[in-house]
Amino acid sequence: MSDPRKRRPFVFWAAFLLFGVLFYWGAKQALIHPETPIPTAWNPLVPLSVQDPVTPVTQWKLTQAIADPALCREVLSNTAVFEARSDRIDTEQCHIRNRVLLSSVGNADISMLETRCAIALRLAMWEHHGLQPAARALLGAEISRIVHIGSYNCRPIRTTSGSTGRMSTHATADAVDIAGVILSDGRRISLLSDWEGEDASAAFLREAQATSCIWFKTSLGPEFNRLHADHFHLQNTGWGTCR
Fold first, then answer.
1. What Cα–Cα distance (Å) separates residue 162 from each residue in 149, 156, 158, 165, 166?
2. Are 8 and 98 in a shared domain?
3. How many domains does the chain divide into?
4. What pLDDT score does 44 carry?
5. Contact criterion met (CB below 8 Å) for 80 and 51
6. Do strands 188-190 and 175-183 pair parallel, antiparallel, or not at all (unpaired)?
7. Are the C-beta atoms of residues 143 and 127 closer than 8 Å to each other?
């Protein structure tokens, strides 16, 4: 006769596994049910919406959207004006995959920007959750236009000592250079003119860079080096550098 004590571990783990399967199934049903009480901003199975409040799953949703070209364009279509274009392949080193021509993002216009959907979507998140709140709080106005210097540029990385020979992230449109903003009351705020001040315009630019570090993987500004005196260099790639 078998010892019943030897069967207890098997029974325990079988019950544990069954409980885990049922819990997973129930949780998934709660997330996907049309009448789920879980807010969309907290639901990891609902695609990113730029207008949703920021939650602990927002960055994960953004990563998922950027990794899926079709999803990236779908999410962007709810918050921006753009034209989806076929990939641009100039050389093995210089290309734009998931290319878009962006002309507005959120409530701000932007002169036609040829870039990747990933950069456009990061700009959308920054505009909605960083730039506009900072402008309203510090400048008492909305941003009507974002001023850029470009995204795609087939060139090597530039340093204060000259070219490195390594290709810039601009060569794959994985970066965008932002020079400033124009406000709804006509004021122009630029890094070149306003970064060094101590007024509200300077405070806005510093808050703008601080929030850009949330939505981009790399953010370089005037304090990085003199080559960035007139713009923020914002990347889709990197390890969190914020200078």
1. 20, 10, 6, 9, 11
2. no
3. 2
4. 93
5. no
6. antiparallel
7. yes
Query: Other C-beta atoms within 10 Å of 110: how many?
Result: 23
Q: Say yes or no: 9 and 45 in one domain.
A: no
- Count of residues in the chain: 243
Q: Give dist(CA 111, CA 46) in Å, integer.
A: 31
Q: Which of 86, 133, 77 minimizes the C-alpha distance to 105? A: 77
Domain that holds residue 57: 41-235
One pLDDT digit (tens) per residue for the chain, 243 residues:
555 555 556 555 555 565 554 444 444 455 555 666 789 999 999 999 999 999 999 999 999 999 999 999 999 999 999 999 999 999 999 999 999 999 999 999 999 999 999 999 999 999 999 999 999 999 999 999 999 999 999 999 988 776 677 999 999 999 999 999 999 999 999 999 999 988 999 999 999 999 999 999 999 999 998 999 999 999 999 999 999
For 186, other C-beta atoms within 10 Å of its C-beta total: 8
Cα gap 214→202, rounded to integer Å: 19
Structure tokens at 201: 């315009």
The Cα–Cα gap between 118 and 26 comes to 34
**Rounded to whole angstroms, how far apart are CA atoms 132 and 118?**
20
The answer to whether residue 240 is domain-embedded is no
Angle at 240 between CA 136 and CA 180, to 5 degrees: 35
Structure tokens at 236: 């889709």
Looking at the fold, whether 32 and 47 belong to one and the same domain comes out as: no
